[in-house]
Structure formats: C-alpha cells, structure tokens
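Sharing a chain and its predicted structure for anyone who wants a worked example. Both blocks are below, sequence first, tokens second.
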Amino acid sequence: MSIDFYIRLVGMVVFALLGASTGNWLGMTTNPENQLVYTLLLGLVGALFGLVLTPYLTTRPMRRIRALLGRLSAETLVSGLVGLVVGLIVAALLSFPLSLLPEPFGKVMPFVGVLIFGYFGVAIFVMRQTDFASVLSGLSGRRESGGPGGWGAASRTVLLDTSVIIDGRVADIANTGFLPGTLLIPRFVLNELQYIADSSDNVRRQRGRRGMEVLAELQKSPAVVVRISDIDVEGVRDVDDKLVVLARQLKCPIVTNDYNLNRIAELQGVPILNINELTNAVKSVVLPGEIMTVSIIQEGRETNQGVGYMDDGTMVVVEHGNKFIGQTKDVTVTKVLQTAAGRMIFARPED
C-alpha cells in the first residue's frame, strides 16, 4: 500500500475527532437534545473530509516541493540557503527597533521584516550566485582555474548531449582542460544512451556501446568532474527539449554535435558548445602561395588530380598530382575553399 493510503487513514481519524468535538460543542450550545446527532454527523463529515483531502494537504504539496528542489542545482540551493540566513540575521538586528514603534506597528513590523528580508536575501543570493562564488573563491585563495573541487570549477556546469558522448571527442577535449567545471549528464540522457546500446540494429548498438565507453573514460579521468544527476524536467518528453529547458534553468551551455538541437537552443537563447565548430576553428590556417608538404594517396574526381590530407583531416587537392600517388610532395597552395562540408585546399606540385 502507498503512503497516501496511510495518510488518508490518519487524516480520517484526526478530522473525525475534530468534527465530533465540534459537533459536540455545537449541539451542547444550541440544541442539547440533539447533541449526539450533531456529534455523529459532524464526525462523519470530518472523516469524509480527512479521507478525501488529507493527501492534498500533506503528501501532494511535499512531492511538488521535492520535485521543484530536484530541478535546482546544488549551487542555487546553497546560495538560497545562505541568502535566507543573511536575511534572517538582518531581520533579527532590526526587530528591536521595529518593536519600539507605536501599536499596532510594534507587534506587526518585526514579523513583516522577517518576511521581507528573508525573501530579498534568497532572491539576491540566487540571482548573483556566480558572483558570490567568485568572491568566495578569491577569499579562499583558490583561482577559478584551480582543481576540480574549487569554487570556480563548481560554479560552471556544462550539459552533455547524447550525440557528443557517442562522438567521443569530448573526452579528449575535456582532458586538455578546455571544458572546465562539472560535466553534468542528466539521467534521461543516460537512459537514451542505454536505449541506443540495447538497440537491435547493429550500428546503433555499436554507437551506444561506444558512448558508454566514453562515459566510463570521462569518469575515470582525474582532470574531469563528471556528475550524473536525477534532475528532470516535468511536462516535456523529448530529450532535446528537456536539455534546452534544463540549460535555461541552470543557466549553463550544452555541448552537442546535433544540428537540430543547436538551432533550437540558439532560438531560445541557450549557449551551445559545438565540437564540430571547434574542430573547424582549430584547423591549420594556410594562405595561397604557401608551401606545404602532403602525402598524395589517391586520385581526385577530375583528370590528373591527386588527393592528400593534412594532419587535421583537411583535404588537399593537388592539380597534376595523380602521377605522385603514394609519394610525399611539396606543393604550393593556390586556393582555399570553405564549403558546408568543411574546408578544401587546392595546390599544385612544386617544380
């Protein structure tokens, strides 16, 4: 049996006793001859009231509060608690001067001060939680670029999408220190990854298992802080939509390779860290006229063309390079072309 059932029983007994007591007093003061009727009638009404409405007064509100707290980050909870304590201290300091006011203000204003300063304390500390974390980091002598346990690292949270975990490059990037802070993986992302790993399709199954291996590698890395959280978003079923809503609530970016998620998040003002864009940004920069060395490994689409690749995967098309297939050749860059698929470099062999 659920806890609601026992709560209903307790509420039924309590409200039945309250109803019977009220009926007994009402019958005794208005109509002593029907005192028993009043007692039984209001007792039954109280029992029915307690049986039906007790969960709405006890367990249901508690569950909603617990769900709300579950959607908040640890930084927000700590900031709110500290703000509440500060607000109550200020209210306590002002309670004595306020109590000296003329009646009835002297009795009412201390209580009003507790409500006002408590609210503003929580609101201010939650709104400026990142700034306060930075101040505490400086006072404690720890820099934001410090170890994983520092305030600076704790104040930054990055959400990981399923696609970027499967891709695998996020592990190498995180190990280099370019993703400081906590890598947060919600439970619904982990469930989607497990669903892919259990797929009947061999390709999807291999991709899912690769994602599990990447996640295990991230958790073992001493330079990376990984946190798997049960935090969820109610009323939303799609994983991408949940990530966007969660990122807005936590005010943190999403790391992804998913083009659709990228567009949806940008439209809603959520920052995106796209690993494909990062890869394109860190590719070697070459200009027309520069001389470079490339290994020509295959023929190109056009006649007499040879194709090679730079260390970062950029394709180099060499004019009249088909006769140098299998050789390493110095070539002169003639043109750099940026396409939707990436960057292509056109070159010609050095004489």
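Comments welcome. The beta strands are 157-160, 182-186, 225-229, 254-256, 272-274, 291-299, 306-309, 315-318, 328-339, 342-349.
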